[in-house]
Amino acid sequence: MKKILSVLLTSTLALTACSSGGDDDTTATTGAASCAPSSGGPVTLNFTSWIPNIEDVVKVWNDSHPNIQVKVQTGPNGNGGTYQNFFNQLKAGNAPDLGQIEYDALPSFRVQDGLENLAACKPVSDAKDQFIDWTWNQVSFGEQNAVYGVPQDAGPMALFYRKDLFEKAGIAIPTTWEEYTAAAEKVKAAGGYITNFSQSDINQFAGLAWQAGGHWFANDGSKWSVNFQDEATTKVATYWQDLITKKLVSTVPPWTTEWDNAYNKGNAWTWVSAVWGANSISSGAPDTSGKWAVAPMPQWTAGGKTAGNWGGSSTAVFKGSKHPYEASEFAIWLNTSQEALTLLNEKANLYPATKSGATLPALSKGVAFYGDQKIYDVFAEASGQVAPDFTWGPTMTSTYATASDGFKAAVSGNGTLIDALKKAQTTTVDNLKSQSIPVAE
Amino acid sequence: MKSKTAAMAIMGLSTLYFLVPIWWLFVGATKSRGDFSSTAPLWFADFNLGQNLHELVSYRDGVFLRWMLNSILYTGGAALLGTVLAAMCGYALAKYRFRGRELIFNIVLGGVLVPATALALPLFLIFSQLNATNTFWSVFLPSLVNPFGVYLARIYATASVPEELLEAARLDGSGEVRTFFKISTKLMFPALVTIFLFHFVAVWNNFLLPLIMLGNERLFPVTLGLYSWNTQVNQLPELRMLVLTGALVSILPLVAAFLLLQRFWRSGLGSGAVK
Which SUPFAM superfamilies is this protein grouped with (chain A) (predicted)? Predict the structure, then answer.
């Protein structure tokens, strides 16, 4: 009798297991508990990414892995529509197996329970040590036994500056933010602006706050806390507000031709930006070739060694994927293997999130646009100096929008950056509540 | 006389207002990337259009040409077929008396009020159930529907197809379908051109549907393709010139459609107004 019962039980279990493999299944719980290779037969994975020319990279994998074929889907960048598509697809139960998600968007997928926890997938847990520590924290949110994506690229920040102009004006390259202000005054006297303050790149500001030790979000496992007014962030906001008020920085909208022109014509002398910014300058300001150089970010305390980060993304596996093991195998290859990282860097200027990534041949050479300086050495060092404990919140899109509105007002003289952050704080908390995400106040 | 000068001045200003962006686009598309950010935006620098066009059509195995073809298939195909459907539907509502006719017409009319944007997500969920997202049909089929066309066709059929003519055709032994295609469509032709143009523009501009439905780059219409490139400009700055040149090329079919069909359209609007 007992035996029959147990047979019955196992068969019902088997049935549920089968039925949970159905098409419209979004609630499969392949948690951290299990992640085994699929038994038998070739596997096809769908991968959505907006990295330009990603198909060429995936082709290398497909050619050498006949049993795990990856099909690429593409679209506009995340906030341009692909994230919304991911949410729609999760709802409809036809999300791709893998998707590209930037670090600052990862928490919003986590709170919607859209991501597969890869902690139990052997390819992932084995590769942990290959990644730079802080990038790993970006995908694990500091949770125990949790990995919600494989770090793909990073955006460590440094100071791009016009070497020729600084030399001609006899101004020393600032190593602290205090010196940066002093230099700003001299640059103004020489007829330029030390930099352009971006009114809409809130994630750049986040990078600056990150360097100063700011913490915007925290999650203790049950509740989120939001803080745009901690000491570090307030310090950074006050600092830039001061430069804006004294008109020591220009404030043209970023990523426009006007902005390119400010750099091309030598009106803006420096840019505190991420590693991928190297390419933005060389393409936006082609007439200044050979005149730029890169130095570490100015520090808050003399002799300090901290850097911020701006950008970076991960390769995540969506909930409901039938082949999390194979998917994680591919994600690890894509983001750790020498051949994939080289191609990603060559085709799309991605800067790897792995420790050994900095030694790629392409990243060890001098760059002609920067007077043959080995600029990536500066970024490799910066990458190791990024604080590991900065967390993004689950509603960054709306947070960015509110903060950006406030920043725009501040640069045109209505209110201050501090006001903007205060406003961002209230709307973010409201926004979390309206999505029934618990907030600690 | 004075009022005429004023009118001309206003017309001239608005013409300028509408043409400047196109002029800007044209001038921009002829520049090299360096010149684009450093020279005056409304006048030429080194003429680089040929080079830009060449890069545009050769980038990623000519995916841009594929997008143009897709756009023409989606919009041209859907507009053509959609016009026929709308004409048949409007004609039936105008010329046949049956139970529920007004109800159907009112429901169709209600459809005019529902923006295409609001339907994109429900359509995505429906196509997901059928496992048909990310296919040509997921964009093509929903694009066939055109309630405004039905409305126009009904109004126009009532006004321009005389009852007596249909009676005569019936007496001579012509079937209903034949009468429709041989006689009624001829009479309704100007209205059909109007419907076609409206539909063409509506499908061309319906950006959200392909954005939500499609993941395969080879199926993108040109609007979605260029938009995707534009969002990648920060990462791959050389795409900027491709986006500009692509935008210039992509408006050509619309310009062509309007130039070729405008005389029909004008007569359609005019004769409708007189009746």
Answer: Periplasmic binding protein-like II
